[in-house]
Structure formats: C-alpha cells, structure tokens
Amino acid sequence: MNSAFNEHISVDCVIFGYDLKSLKVLLLERHLHKPDGKTLIFKDLTLPGNHIRNNEDLETAAQRILFELTGLNDIYLEQFAVFSDPVRLDNPKDQKWLSAIGKDPSNRVITAGFFSLIPLERYYLKQNGNELLPDWYGKNPCWHTLDHIGDMAFDHARILATALDFLREKIMSKPVIFELLPEKFTASQFQNLYEVILGKMLDKRNFRKKLANLEFVVSLNEKQVGVAHKPARYYMFSRDVYERKRKEKFTLIT
Amino acid sequence: MNSAFNEHISVDCVIFGYDLKSLKVLLLERHLHKPDGKTLIFKDLTLPGNHIRNNEDLETAAQRILFELTGLNDIYLEQFAVFSDPVRLDNPKDQKWLSAIGKDPSNRVITAGFFSLIPLERYYLKQNGNELLPDWYGKNPCWHTLDHIGDMAFDHARILATALDFLREKIMSKPVIFELLPEKFTASQFQNLYEVILGKMLDKRNFRKKLANLEFVVSLNEKQVGVAHKPARYYMFSRDVYERKRKEKFTLIT
DNA sequence: CCTAAATAGTGTAATAAATACACAAACCCA
DNA sequence: TGGGTTTGTGTATTTATTACACTATTTAGG
After folding, report:
1. Interface of B with A in 118-137 (CB under 8 A)
2. 3-class state of residue A34 by DSSP
3. In chain B, what are the domains?
4. Which of A70, B140, B180, B231 is positioned for an S-S bond with B18, CB 3.0–4.6 A?
5. CB–CB contacts below 8 A, A to B
6. pTM score, two decimals?
7. For residue B160, what pLDDT band results from cuts at 50, 70 and 90?
8. What's the CA–C1' distance between B232 and D30, in Å?
9. In this structure, is the CB of residue B221 within 7 Å of any atom belonging to strand C?
C-alpha cells in the first residue's frame, strides 16, 4: 500500500456554484499543442479530476482535488455514478492527448463521478485572498453557466449532464440546496436557485407558503441594507432543526 | 481491448426477491478448507460478484453475473454505490482466502455495488425447469431473509446494508417495487411488500385509498381462486400509464 | 349443512397541503 | 417627491392525509 497513483481508476468532480443569478460549474481548460509547443491543435474543457492514489479511497481522492482547486475542505461531496464504458477514452482527440502527455492511450480507466456543491462566496474569498493558484497549472479554472459550455474532453459532457439530473432530483428530497447558498439568504434568492436548477418558474406566494412550513429554514431578524428597493428579510438553514424535525413521509410513489 | 478479467475492478450484486411474505436476498456460500481439502477453516456468505472483463462495462458485468445465476437477462439492475476503501479486503480471513485461491492478497480491488430486483416466481420457474446449476460451482445460492444472515465476506455486509437503504428510498419515488411482485398481485401483497421493506405497518384503508389514486396500478377483473377466505382482486402495474401520467411534483424538501 | 377461521373490502370526518391569482409596502435614487 | 424596483401578503377551491371498526366472502372441518 503506497501513495502512487492507481492508473485504472480516477475521479471526476462536478462542482456546482450559485452566484445568486445562475447555476455555475467549475471547469478546467485542456490544451493540446504541436510538439513545437506553440501551435494549438485543440482546446476544450474538462471536469477537475485525477487518478486515485493507492492509499486513498474515492472520496478522499475527490476531496484532495477539491481542496487543491478551491482551498476548501469542508464542502458537500457525494459520489453519484461511475462511468465505465470500455471506449470512453477512445475518441481520436483524447487518444492524441493521452499520447502527448505520455500516457498509454490503450490503458483502460474507469472514473467515479463526484458531485459537489460549494457556496461561491467562499470560493471568491479564497481567490481574493490569493490563496488559489491563479491559472492552476495552465488549466485556468473558470465558472461556466450551463447553457453555453463548449466542447468537452472524454465523456465529461455526459458526466456533467448526469450530475445535473442528479442535482435536480436531490434538491427535492434532501436539504442540499443550502450548500449552494450563502449562510443567510433571502426568499427570492432561494426561490431563484430552485428555478435555475429546475429550469422553470415557481409561484412566489405558494413558494413562500411552503418556505414558511419548513421549520428548518429560520427567518432572521435582519434585512438587506443598501438595496434600491424594499429590503428583503434574511433566512438561514438550521441543520439541527432539520435533523430533529425531518418528516418520515410515506408516499408510495410520486 | 480483450475479454480477460480486469483485476482491479469488480461488481457485486445485491439481488432482492419477494416471496409474498418477506424480502429475500440471494447469497452464495464461501468455504475455506485446509490444504487437505477436507477440514473446513471457515464458511461464510458472499454477494454474487466477479471482476469485470476488459471489454465490458460495469453494467454488462453485473448482467453477466445475474444471468449466470438466475438464467434471467431482463431484470431490474442499477448501480447504487462504489466501495473503494483501500483496506476493504484486509481482514485476516479474507486475506487467507485470497491466498488460498491463488490471488495476490495485496492487490487492491474496487467494487461497484449493483442492486437488482427480481420476481421470485421467475427464478423458481428457471429452477424447476432445471435451467440453473443446482449448487452453482459449490457455492449453493440461497435466498436469505434479511433478519438472520450470518457472517459475510469482505465488506459485503456493508454493501448489503447500503443496498437496503437504497431500496427503501427508491420505492418511495420510483415504481421499482413492481419489479419484485408477480405480474398480477393483490392489494394486500402489495401493501405487505411495502411493510417488509420499510419495516413498519401501514393502515389498510389509507393504503388502498392511495392505491386507488395510482392510475398506473390498474385493477383487473380477476380474483384469487381456491383460497380459504374471501378472494382478493388482482392488480397489475402499467408502465405505459406510468410514463404518461407521472406527476412532476414540486416538493422543496421532504 | 352449519360454523369457524381467515382475509378482503369499505366510509367519514377532520386536518393539512396544493393551486391559482393581484396589489400595497418599503427602499433608493435622481 | 415621484419613479423604479423588488418585497411581502390572503383567500377560495381542490386535493391529499390521517385516524379509526365493521361487514362480506370464501374454504375447511366437524
């Protein structure tokens, strides 16, 4: 048991964030240059990922990657699927790229997809404090909105799509949505986040009625200041209350 | 790309069945004998599993195992988790066993857990038709109820427990429960299956009211015959109706 | 043939949640 | 002080949820 990389297994992280307007995902750039090191053959996007080490499990590997990229180590992380198509690395451009970086392009790699939710404000804090490598080994990490993402490496577009489906289902049954929000948030920000994830508008009054029934979303005696409109009340999520009050609903099937 | 086994990755199948009384899981026996081939060192239970082949993905490998074991190839199968603890094979008895069967006990193996639901009647049809190997290479496959399962190999007890949690969640949101029932079933059989999976009793009248509102569970004009009590009406699941009528409920969080 | 044993099948009243829908209130800025 | 902007609220209707107890239909057995 050592800490060398296991060449057969990798993890890829789909890291979501919310900037109070839209849902974002953190992606890296991949560049393939001609041997002269200058002429660009192609450029596309990848999910942050890496092979696992022989002494770590999948979750630990994903945590490692997240920490390297965001400086954060207490963020929401969950494995959501494994991608094991025997030909998942077999596109010509991916084969070229593997050869170029000195890997055996015929080596089979299976990857576990991890799903992570991060409060963007915490990322920006690290970034503004210069705690993050500005261009991360030339891979230039950037937050992308989900509607115009360019070409992606390997099967990463599929992994991303699967993660998004997973997110949509998850927010309906587990209180994970709060992992994307700042500690205190307004009802509108909360509603908007549901709307951007689900891709549909929700009725404001009915939404707030449901919100009022969520005992674990507690309303603070604090309002927005300095906004050019009626200031909104802040709410926060209480995990304590959630754990105590979660309802064991029996629903047959929905 | 060839069909040799990949020594790094395996799949393990948690195969559930329902005999109209209780929930069962299909397990194999593992025996370790002294080199004399007679004295038994230990005997325990394993989930059916195997390494994947280099030319198949995880799902295909799981299907292969299921087919070998049940003769069925159109049954419900879903990956539910990956087990990647670096020390998952490191219990002394497992190490001994790996050595005894000629494997390198220090080789790391990651396994994907698959979750399968099979209508027991179909299994018994195959079995009674002598289409199944009676003792399956000495591993004596048997359906076990979940309350008294003995010692299990590797981390298989944990995999099984995780699968059971997964099942409990899944039946509340997707129509998978019908995969365990015969084609036609009575309301009581249906309710009992929920009860044994969830481990709690449900109110009969309320259950039937919900059942009546499930448009995709259609009531047949057919009753039990030959039972020593009032014969019950049969129902069946209509996947067609389900696909057309499934409700897109918005629930915030439950 | 009558009875017992077993399970099926049904209704109501009270409470809680879901839906559709429109206008006044509070703040900043110019 | 008026205009722009976003917050925050209520009602009526329909639909689901819960708690709860008795009659009906069949076979088996004396």
Report:
1. none
2. coil
3. 5-170 (3.90.79.10), 183-245 (1.10.10.10)
4. B180
5. 101
6. 0.95
7. very high
8. 27
9. no
